[in-house]
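Following up on my earlier message about adenosine-5'-triphosphate. Here are the inputs again, as you asked, copied directly from the submission form:
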Amino acid sequence: MDNSRETVVEIKNLYKSFGDHHVLNGVNLNLYKSENLVVMGKSGTGKSVLIKCLVGLITPDKGDVSILGKKLNHLTTKDWDALRSEVGFLFQGGALYDSMSVRENLEFPLRHHREKFGVIKDTTPRVMAALESVGLANTIDLMPKELSGGMQKRVALARTLILEPKIILYDEPTTGLDPITSREIVELIGKVQHTYGTSSIIITHDIDCAKVISDRVVLLLDGINYTEGSFNDLYNAKDPRIAAFFKK
Ligand SMILES: Nc1ncnc2c1ncn2[C@@H]1O[C@H](COP(=O)(O)OP(=O)(O)OP(=O)(O)O)[C@@H](O)[C@H]1O
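Thanks, got it. Here's what our run produced:
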C-alpha cells in the first residue's frame, strides 16, 4: 500500500466490550481516499460494532478514531451532525422508512442536514438525480413495500448518495439478495466509487462481492485485524486461519 495516499479514516487501537464479552481487542485500520476496503471476518467478530463506532452509534472503550482529520472523541453535537453528512451508512436491512414514499425517504436527510446545502426550496432535482444514479428514477412516488428487496437497497443507497458523502460504510450490502441482484448491487457500489471518488468500507461475507469490489481486504479475527492485502493475496494465503475463511 502506498503510504503517501490521503487517509480519510484512521482507527487506532480500538477496544470495545459488552460486559465481559470483549468484542474489539485493539483494532488498527486505515481507509485511504477513493479506495474500497472490504472487511471480512467470522460472524460475531465485531465488524458491525467497528463501523458503528465510526458513526457514533457505539462508543468505544479505548482507542482513537479520526474521520476526515477529526478525532471523534472530541466532537460537539454540531460537529457530529456535520460529519454524519460526510459519512453515509448503509445498514444491513436497507432501513427505508416504511411509512414514507421513496421521495420522502430521500428528502429526509436533506431536511436533517440543512447545514450542508442550506434550505432547498425544490428538492425534486436532487431526489431525481440520486434516484437516477441507482437507475430507479421511476420509483419516486412508490412506497417501500412496493419495491423488491434489491430495489429497496438501491433506494437506500440513493438516500445515502443524496448528501454527497465522502465516505460510505456498507454493512453486508448483498446479504439476503439473489446472486443476480447481488451482482447489480456490487456493480452499483463500484460505479459510485468511480463516479464520486468516495472511499468505502464494505463489510461482507460474500466472497464474490469481495473479489469484484475490493481494492484491499482486511480480515478481522478475535476482535483484531489479523491480516490484510489484495483479495488474491488473502485468497491464495497458506495460513490455515485465512484459508479456512475462503472455504477452499
Ligand atoms: N449493543 C450491543 N450490546 C451487547 N452486545 C452487542 C451489542 N452490539 C453487538 N454486540 C455483540 O458484539 C458481538 C459482535 O457483533 P457484530 O454485530 O459486530 O458482529 P459481526 O462481525 O458484524 O457479525 P455478523 O457477520 O454476523 O453480522 C456479537 O456477539 C454481538 O452480540
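One observation from looking it over: The chain has a mean pLDDT of 91. Hope that helps, and feel free to reply on this thread.
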